[in-house]
Amino acid sequence: MPQNISRNPGRHFLQIPGPTLVPDRIMRAIDSQLIDHRGPEFSKLAKRCLEGIKTIFKTTNPVIIYTATGTGAWEAAFVNTLSPGDRVLMVETGQFATLWKAMAQNLGLKPEFIPGDWRTGADPKQIEEHLRKDKAHEIKAVCVLHNETATGCLSSIAAIRKAIDAAGHPALLMVDTISSLASTDYRHDEWGVDVSIGGAQKGLMLPPGMSFNAISDKALEASKTSKLTKSFWSWNDMLNMNKQGFFPYTPATQMIQGLAVAIDMLHEEGLDNVFARHARAAEATRRAIRAWGLEILCRDPQFYSPTITAVLLPDGHDAEAFRALALDAFNISYGTSFGPYARKYFRIGHLGDFNDGWILGALSLTEMALGLAGIPHKKGGVQAAMDYIESSHSRAARAAAE
Ligand code: PLP
Fold first, then answer.
1. Is the CB of 155 within 6 Å of ligand 1?
2. What spacing in Å lies between the alpha carbon of 71 and ligand 1's midpoint?
3. Which end of the chain has fewer CB atoms at under 10 Å, N or C?
């Protein structure tokens, strides 16, 4: 905050890749008075959410709602389906893949990590080759992130499904959709995903503290023989209680109030429009970065993320100092950097509840912050973003008129 000012006027530009801004309508739902979580009103609300969330994962199977952050839903996916010593195939896309792999180790699983350079998504061919070598089918699960939040790289889950099938391998497919769900197309059933892991605080526009496991019949079957210790995370207890619209414990009732509204809002906008809005903001952001003459961390366009873009700074410029300066001068927060590229990049989140004007505002502040920080760049990034957004609106208008 500029010196001698004790209040920041206007809204904070929360451009981290989640938690994202919570719409006022969801805030008001969360702010409602408490109700009996074993009573009829709650049961109706919970059933509405349990059905509604299926439409977001695009599944007709059950979705478990946990009172936990995404990390809890990661653990739930493992402990419900696997047994101690099981081999699992994971892909090093970045920080979150690395954390998930560490969790697998902590739980007594044997993760095999396909190495990556943190600048692309998962390669289906490598997955297929790895699985083909496992003739005894000892690998019990393939675990990938749909969108690596740390780097802004999106992987093709449909292609990974095909790779697993091409290898004729029966491993479960587990997918982390935490920073992609409700922001870009995701199809749990069609892509043959066995456990999809979601979180509340990104595309769903809710505060952190709620997460999900969407489960296939095959995953449910695996849960009957899985031997990892589970209690709080047990799908079984949840599924039984959920039938009546209840939970085995006191759920985060206010988050459920918020979730019902979030699902309504996503369908009012239309999921395809939500996805198009995210894709437009992502492309506008990339065009701005290119016009500034800076480099996008994701080095292959086929993996560009619709929700997060990481921007590499030229050598000798510290991304953490840049983030601090931008926050101080313009009240804007970017995502931090990790791993081999720590302090070398910052992340612009473009997900959740925003519009074209908001993204252009964020990019304008970024262009000015680059100038203030003395980071060599060209002007005109915001203009490039505006030109793109304008042209995509005129394309859409022409298409509607045809
Ligand atoms: N997976 C991904 C892709 C994430 O982005 C995050 C958090 O940002 C997590 C897992 C962990 O979720 P949480 O911080 O809600 O526990």
1. no
2. 6
3. C
pLDDT digits (tens, 9 = 90+) for 176-222: 999 999 999 999 999 999 999 999 999 999 999 999 999 999 999 99
What Å distances lie between residue 323 and 287, 347, 372, CA to CA?
Answer: 21, 10, 12
Rg (CA), the chain: 22
Neighbour tally for 39: CB within 10 Å: 11
Distance CA(81)–CA(58), nearest Å, equals 21
DSSP3 helix / strand / coil % (the chain, rounded to 5): 45, 15, 40
Report the alpha-carbon distance of residue 210 to residue 24 in Å, rounded: 19
List Cα–Cα distances, 161 to 75, 123, 195, 271, in angstroms. 22, 12, 13, 23
- Cβ(138)–Cβ(130) under 8 Å? no
Strand ranges, E, within 289-388 = 295-296, 308-312, 332-334, 345-349
pLDDT tens for 355-386 read 999 999 999 999 999 999 999 999 999 999 99
CA 208 to ligand 1: nearest atom:
15
CB atoms within 10 A of CB 12: 12
**Ligand 1 near 333 CB (within 6 A):** no
8 Å CB contact between 351 and 15: no
Look up residue 117 and give its amino acid.
Answer: D
| Pairing of the two strands 295-296 and 211-215 | unpaired
Residue labelled with tokens 């697993």: 164
Given this model, what pLDDT does residue 4 score?
63
